[in-house]
Amino acid sequence: MKIAKITLAGVAMLAVMSSAALAEQTTNATGLITKIDRTTGIIAIKRIQDGTVGASTAGAEEFKLQSGSLEAWHAGDRVSFTATESGGTKTITKIEKQSSASR
Question: Of the candidates 13, 16, 90, which has an alpha carbon nearest to the alpha carbon of residue 47?
């Protein structure tokens, strides 16, 4: 009986941990647009390093734009954005151009 309780407790813990891992994740970041594919609605953004000297930055990440058009955006634009990731799909929910004064 004791082994059954321990097993049941372990299964319950795994269920809670896996549901938390599948939850939607939100990210706020700044970056540089490196590529726009208007036919598929995908925008690639390379995150800009936030002042940590010597830290490596990954390559560009690809996102879908939740709403709006990609026509206003161009490769080389610096942007701040909010993105969510759910089920392996990264989606930009808010994006704004950074002014040249904030660079």
Answer: 90
Dump pLDDT digits (tens) for 73-91: 999 999 999 999 988 889 9
* Residue 75 identity (one-letter amino acid): A
Query: Closest Cα partner for 58 from 86, 90, 87?
Result: 90
Listed in sequence order, the residues at least 6 apart from 27 whose beta carbon sits closer than 8 Å to its beta carbon are: 82, 83, 84, 85
**Phi-psi group of 8: left, alpha or beta (phi > 0 → left; psi -120 to 50 → alpha; rest → beta):** alpha
Virtual torsion, Cα 45, 49, 55, 60, nearest 10 deg: 0
Checking DSSP bridges between strand 89-97 and strand 78-86, what pairing results, if any? Answer: antiparallel
User: pTM for the full model?
Assistant: 0.67
What CATH number corresponds to the domain at position 78? 2.40.50.320
**Residue range(s) defining the domain that contains residue 75:** 24-102
What is the domain count for the chain?
1
